[in-house]
């Protein structure tokens, strides 16, 4: 029987340093042992001042020649030292009497810091110091990731303590390791080596993490991630879900076929493929957990509608949830127009509706009279009860937290034998997940991809333009509007300066209204009430309004095919996937469409490299996968995923870009290990992810 690593005492942490340790997630010995250095400092040798080049971080031992408090250019302690080879000035801008005492004339000191070439010779600013002569350490000094309240020296001691106490027996079977130098490194050796490397090591290999000891740990981390996701999948497969297969007869039979007949378009090949994948899942006894990804405008809604119909045909209810009221309402309208003629009853549920309306919606969900319930977060509240919930569809799933997804899955139904049946779950996203991320963080999900746009879409021309050319852009808008086209103008909303942004948007609105006499220009922003927002959107969707100025980026998941020009002001402030989503609002009809990314550098002479990279990527490609890949490159997985949304603990050591071969290895090895050595596998997960693995199961 495997025993989990000992857990720290349950009593609350006392000192600020202990608290900080817990904040870093370092509660067990093994957590401490697996807290690896960011870099190292070499305190094992003393360098002669004459050998130290500018920029080097060195440790020297020298005698204090002079020590004085000088008042210009500002009050500071200036200490001149001499080690026999050369001299150096130490400067302390903040100092205490203890400094003056340590640096009294004639004292021998050991100081460590970066050598700078000052006007008057070498100097060090705020070096660390101690009396000369103490024995030199034998290993490089590790520098650990830490937080305020947790000094390196304390952390180092805690880590070494953890390392000496932790159970470091192997959890990866030796035969699992492929040929390669990491084979000859045990976990214990690797950790001891990384925490206390000898001075003669290849520091570059340690710091770029190519050293076999690092390779081994990164591989183990990836394996733990894969194993925990496989465990999550097994746990899910142990759950039961309703089998959603058509009953064949009755008023609800053949609903999805009937929708297909009535649609004004035929499904694309990609839509056909993904809807068949979903249909197959719905007929299984295990809950589906599928992510449907497809670029903006690829037609995910109709796929969701078909899934809902298969569920309804089988006599079950479906719930569809979207992150904003406008998006939810758009779905509601579209679904009602498609499904009502087929005899499907759809209810609408949001937080903002009138109490009587809401009561009616709740009642119809509970009685089962509503086949489909569409709404916002309100749909998952505990008060909302379904008679027989068979399928949950979540649009823009990345905008919902793990807790919300879990809450929906808890809306279970009991079958005749009293077994709980969990609803199937279909999550939709327009932000495609790059392959490596999908393989690592979403390994427990099934993914369907719509990789083709409906025919007849014209490509969108994207221009990156400095804000100095604003006038020109306004002329261009007048042209478009004259042709009967509609235009979006998006202003960024930065929460901290909402008032300023609102003023900008209001000014833009006034400017456009003045420049476009005879045309209606609308303004949508977050301070409007839901009813006001709806009225504005209805005008735009109904083409009574020519131009829509909007600050509420989050609300623009809308579908207005006649809109053919989008201007994004301060495009440099938006994230790449946000820009891509926004741009996807145009190019939905047959007319040639354009997107103008207007940027400003503010007070800076030029754009930051990251902002430049984003705008360039937008100008160069329209492919959502390529955009996502570049976004990942620019931001790194931590920010790309957002720990909250993904719920998965982020990888600490492995880097998906450089460690892809280890990811492949972990993916192939994990199922074998789980099947043949489940206890070892559990120990491995427990060791690496500890309490955090729960997250992954969401
Ligand atoms: P998204 O994937 O961004 O949610 P939507 O589902 O809103 O995209 O679809 C975008 C537009 O394309 C809608 O107007 C929809 O009716 C239309 N559409 C969907 N599938 C097809 C198709 N196969 N052929 C033509 N138009 C389609
Ligand atoms: Mg959509």
Overview features:
single chain, binds adenosine-5'-diphosphate, globular, Rossmann fold, 7-stranded parallel beta sheet, 698 residues, alpha/beta
Would you write up a description of this structure?
By secondary structure, the chain is α/β, with parallel strands linked by helices. Among the domains are: 41-131, Nucleic acid-binding proteins (OB fold (Dihydrolipoamide Acetyltransferase, E2P), Beta Barrel), CATH 2.40.50.140; 255-450, P-loop containing nucleotide triphosphate hydrolases (Rossmann fold); 460-621, P-loop containing nucleotide triphosphate hydrolases (Rossmann fold). The protein is 38% helix and 18% strand. The strands form five sheets. The chain has a seven-stranded mixed sheet with strand order 6-7-4-3-2-5-8. The protein has a seven-stranded parallel sheet with strand order 12-13-11-14-17-10-18, with helices on both faces. Strand 3 and strand 4 form a beta hairpin. It is globular, with a radius of gyration of 31 Å. Bound molecules: adenosine-5'-diphosphate (ADP) and magnesium ion. Magnesium ion binds at residues 300-301, 395, 557. Residues 300-301, 395, 557 line the site of magnesium ion.
Précis, in short:
With 698 residues, the chain is of the alpha/beta class. The chain is built from 23 helices and 24 strands. Helix 7 packs across helix 22, helix 7 packs across helix 23 and helix 22 packs across helix 23.
Q: Judging from the principal axes of the Cα atoms, what is the shape? A: globular
Q: Identify low-pLDDT runs.
A: 1-9, 643-647, 693-698
Bound molecules: adenosine-5'-diphosphate, magnesium ion
Separation of termini?
A: 27 Å
Main beta sheet strand tally, sense and closure: 7 strands, mixed
Widest beta sheet: strand line-up: 6-7-4-3-2-5-8
Compute the gyration radius: what is it?
31 Å
């Amino acid at each position: 029987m495997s025993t989990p690593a000992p857990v720290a005492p349950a009593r609350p942490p006392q000192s600020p340093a202990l608290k900080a340790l817990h904040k870093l997630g370092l509660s067990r010995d093994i957590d401490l042992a697996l807290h690896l250095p960011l870099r190292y400092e070499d305190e094992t040798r003393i360098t002669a001042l004459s050998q130290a080049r500018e920029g080097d971080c060195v440790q020297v031992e020298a005698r204090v020649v002079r020590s004085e408090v000088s008042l210009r250019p500002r009050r500071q302690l200036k200490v001149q030292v001499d080690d026999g080879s050369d001299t150096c000035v130490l400067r302390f801008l903040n100092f205490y009497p203890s400094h003056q005492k340590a640096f009294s004339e004639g004292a021998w000191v050991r100081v460590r810091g970066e050598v700078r070439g000052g006007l008057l010779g070498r100097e060090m600013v705020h070096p660390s110091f101690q009396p000369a002569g103490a024995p030199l350490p034998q290993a490089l000094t590790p520098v650990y990731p830490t937080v305020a309240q947790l000094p390196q020296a304390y952390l180092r001691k805690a880590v070494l303590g953890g390392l000496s106490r932790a159970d470091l027996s192997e959890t990866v079977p030796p035969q699992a390791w492929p040929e390669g130098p990491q084979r000859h490194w045990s976990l214990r050796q690797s950790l001891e080596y990384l925490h206390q490397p000898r001075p003669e090591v290849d520091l570059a290999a340690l710091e770029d993490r190519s050293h076999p000891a690092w390779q081994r740990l990164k591989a183990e981390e990836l394996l733990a991630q894969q194993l925990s996701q496989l465990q999550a999948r097994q746990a899910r497969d142990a759950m039961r879900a309703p089998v959603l297969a058509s009953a064949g007869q009755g008023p609800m039979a053949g609903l999805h076929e009937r929708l297909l007949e009535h649609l004004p378009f035929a499904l694309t090949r990609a839509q056909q493929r993904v809807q068949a994948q979903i249909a197959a899942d719905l007929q299984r006894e295990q809950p589906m957990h599928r992510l449907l990804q497809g670029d903006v405008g690829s037609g995910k809604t109709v796929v969701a509608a078909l899934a809902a119909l298969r569920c309804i045909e089988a006599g079950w209810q479906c719930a569809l949830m979207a992150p904003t009221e406008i998006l939810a309402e758009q779905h509601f309208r579209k679904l009602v127009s498609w499904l009502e003629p087929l005899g499907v009853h759809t209810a609408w549920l949001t937080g903002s509706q009138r109490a009587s309306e809401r009561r009616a919606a709740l009642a119809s969900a509970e009685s089962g009279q509503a086949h489909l319930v569409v709404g916002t977060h309100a749909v998952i509240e505990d008060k909302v009860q379904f008679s027989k919930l068979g399928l949950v569809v979540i649009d823009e799933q990345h905008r919902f937290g793990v807790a919300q997804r879990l809450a929906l899955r808890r809306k279970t139904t009991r079958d005749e034998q009293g077994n709980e049946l969990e609803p199937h779950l279909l999550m939709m996203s327009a932000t495609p997940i790059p392959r490596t991320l999908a393989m690592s963080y979403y390994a427990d999900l099934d993914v369907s991809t719509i990789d083709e746009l409906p025919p007849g879409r014209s490509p969108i021309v994207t221009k990156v333009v400095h804000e100095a050319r604003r006038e020109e852009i306004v002329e261009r808008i007048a042209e478009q509007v004259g042709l009967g086209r509609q235009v979006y103008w998006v202003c960024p909303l930065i929460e901290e300066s909402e008032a300023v942004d609102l003023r900008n948007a209001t000014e833009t609105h006034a400017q456009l209204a003045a420049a476009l006499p005879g045309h209606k220009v609308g303004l949508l922003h977050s301070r409007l009430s839901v009813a006001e927002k709806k009225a504005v959107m209805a005008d735009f969707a109904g083409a009574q309004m020519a131009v829509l100025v909007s600050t509420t980026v989050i609300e623009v998941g809308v579908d207005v095919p006649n809109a053919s020009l989008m201007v994004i002001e301060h495009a440099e402030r938006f994230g790449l996937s946000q820009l891509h989503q926004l741009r996807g609002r145009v190019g939905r009809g047959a007319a040639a469409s354009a997107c103008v990314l207007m940027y400003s550098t503010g007070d800076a002479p030029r754009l930051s490299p990251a902002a430049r990279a984003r705008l360039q990527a937008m100008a160069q490609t329209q492919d959502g996968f390529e955009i996502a890949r570049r976004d990942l490159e620019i931001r790194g997985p931590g920010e790309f995923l957002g720990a909250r949304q993904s719920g998965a603990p982020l990888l600490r050591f492995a880097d998906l870009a450089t460690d892809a071969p280890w990811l492949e290895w972990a993916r192939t090895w994990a199922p074998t290990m789980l099947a043949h050595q489940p206890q070892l596998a559990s120990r491995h997960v427990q060791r690496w992810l500890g309490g955090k693995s729960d997250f992954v199961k969401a």
